[in-house]
Design brief:
CATH class: Few Secondary Structures
CATH architecture: Irregular
Structural class: mainly beta
Number of helices: 1
Radius of gyration: 19 Å
CATH topology: Factor Xa Inhibitor
Number of strands: 9
Amino acid sequence: MADDFTTGLGLRLRRGQTTPIPASETTYVDVARMKSLRIPNIEKEFVEEEVLDQVGALVASGGQKAQDCEFGLVFDAGIAQHLALIADAQATTANARRWWQIVLPNGTSYPISFQGEIMSFTWDDADRKKMIAAKVMIKVNGAAAYGS
């Protein structure tokens, strides 16, 4: 019996256009040479309050908690998208927020789309035995859309 699971091999992160262009009209370009990716989680905010007239607490849920999407990449200055990531990290204008899309490798075309802004571009320590690499952290703005 074969295992029914999906590995990260083939997982893609795609960089889209800056907002306010709608996600449906955005064109995406793959970010090459990714070596790791933390997919944004789904986690709701909630308020819990103890009350005197019942045993259990009252719980009210709200919107989703703020999330990050962090990825590592083997850097190559010859890849235009890598240079664009640095420019995104340096941007201080309102149009620094853009669309991003994660495409899972299981062949189901199940994208995870979100708006976000690069908050950090951090170089890994370099030495003569390692490739030049970096970690990039995107602050997700609002809730991610799953499957659309």
